[in-house]
Amino acid sequence: MVHVNDLNIDSLEPRAVWEFFAGLAGVPRPSKKEGRVREHVRSVAQQRGLTVREDAAGNLLIEVPASAGCESAPVVVLQGHLDMVCEKNAGTAHDFDNEPIRLVLDRDAESNEAIVRADGTTLGADNGIGVALAFAAATSLEVTHGPLEILCTVDEEAGMTGAKALSPGFFRAKTLLNLDSEEDDVIYIGCAGGCDSKLSWSFAASPVPADAEWVRVSVAGLRGGHSGGDIHLNRASAVRLLARVLNECRGIRLAGIRGGSLRNAIAREAEAVVAGPAGIAETLASAAARVQEETVREGGEARCAVRADRSAAESPAAALAQGDTQRLLSALVALPHGVLALVPDMPGLVLASNNVGTVASQPGGADGSLEVNVGCLSRSSSLAHVQRVVRQIAAVGRLAGADVSSGNAYPGWQPNVNSPLLALCRKVYEDQFGSAPRVTAIHAGLECGIIGDRMGGGLDMVSIGPRIRGAHSPDERVYVDSVRKSWQFLTAILATLAGHGPLSL
Asked: Strand pairing of 51-54 and 114-118?
């Protein structure tokens, strides 16, 4: 554990929440590899005498008896996901499959507020802090609540397949509190749905003349972020910047390319190796300097670094033809990226977006070909908009000679402004904090829409959570005072639902 600025994790409140979170941080939990964290959660629950059920997908349901005198209150399900996005800085050595997250207690550089972050990696507060809030509320003796169910889903970040696999009747509750939001003054009542698209090429590669110049072009230092929650901030994509640099230079031949690591994270780093005629290194260096300057000046990316360096010592034996190189680069430039539409009657709320999240090449086999794959994630609260964006991606891909596929679609969560749970939560918030919360939908994907669909409807749901910044990037941080505020809000909601708070149903 690293301690900075005289902060000590033992002094953080609520103590139970931070202890649960530290326990989760100590267990590797990449998407689709949640076996160890499931066993950790099961052990923690069983040590407290709680019943744990697991379905075929690996989702866990922990049943929690009501506080004394609250047995007849309605059952409430507290929901979060166990997996986390695994991103790290280029200079950070970390094995997400086997090493714990190294927690750092620090202060925000701008506000000086106490924060918890990780040492060069994503933190996993998305959604570990939500799971920790649920467990602490369910097991702390000072919290009054009715019968609870804690639903811990798997594989949320890589496709929400855990939520999609839920069987009707897996839990009893008709009231659901999702704890996967990232603003402590907001109650979310809706979210976007989404769909993945993949563009694939198999290009022939051929030898490069001995006098060719080899150049490695790289993009680094970008902020990245969540492709839903941060897409409206217009943060630069490393994949797009790399394509811009390369696309400005004719006569190059691509030998390898990679950028981004997750389709739901804005790409922070990318690089390509290309060959070209004499003088191409200087041309690419000039283009790189121009793109870097524009990105720093217009995109707010102060740490953006775009480089073009001679790399003869690392040069491969073959590369794509100029025409195939141009087709690929043209597709990367032409693909829709960023905010594509806003909600007409809710200024500032994104209606549709697309993230060109990943590009990767690999040798195709004995025939000497090079396979290139590009991954996108399109989001919208409107199914029609998602379908239009996916069709646009497919059209660009087909024009560039790619094989195009789409799938892993999931529904949005349609807002219900007449929700009784929303009315209760608004009143509790006002009583606790003396002001009204914001009530809105979020462009990121929450599991609420899928869970409601899988349970056959009839669920009354809201989503709340503490303030998290930089999710899906190594800049991820959670604010200590905000966790305390979310704890106060959550426990007051539970007491109210149990008939022992400032309101009763």
From this structure: unpaired
Q: Does the pLDDT of residue 203 top 50, yes or no?
A: yes
The segment(s) of the chain belonging to CATH 3.30.70.360 are: 195-410
Catalytic residue among 34, 83, 149, 301: 83
Q: In the CATH scheme, what is the homologous superfamily, with its name and number, of domain 2-192+413-497?
A: Zn peptidases (3.40.630.10)
Number of neighbouring beta carbons within 10 Å of residue 200: 14
Strands 175-178 and 460-463: parallel
- Give the burial string for 416-432 (b: 16+ CB within 10 Å, else e): eeebebbebbbbbbeeb
For CATH 3.40.630.10, list the domain ranges present in the chain.
Answer: 2-192+413-497
CA–CA distances in Å: residue 112 to residues 18, 80, 129, 321, 423: 20, 29, 21, 53, 34
Identity of the amino acid at 276: G
Q: Is 156 a catalytic site residue? A: yes
SS (H, E, C) 130-197: HHHHHHHHHHCCCCCCCCEEEEEECCCCCCCHHHHCCCCCCCCCCEEEECCCCCCCEEEEEECEEEEE
* 372: three-class secondary structure by DSSP: strand
pLDDT (mean) for 225-236: 91
What's the pLDDT tens digit per position in 255-284?
Answer: 999 999 888 899 999 999 999 999 999 999
∠ CA 278-359-469, nearest 5°, is 120
pLDDT of residue 345: 74
* 3 state DSSP class of 353: strand
In which band, very low, low, confident or very high, does the pLDDT at 1 lie, cut at 50, 70 and 90? Answer: very low
pTM (predicted TM-score): 0.81
pLDDT in tens, 100-153: 999 999 999 999 999 999 999 999 999 999 999 999 999 999 999 999 999 999
Q: Cβ(223)–Cβ(289) under 8 Å?
A: no
Q: Name residue 441's amino acid.
A: A
What is the CATH T-level fold of the domain 195-410, as seen in this structure?
Alpha-Beta Plaits (3.30.70)
In angstroms, how far apart are the furthest CA atoms of the chain?
84
Catalytic annotation, pick one of 34, 87, 155, 156: 156
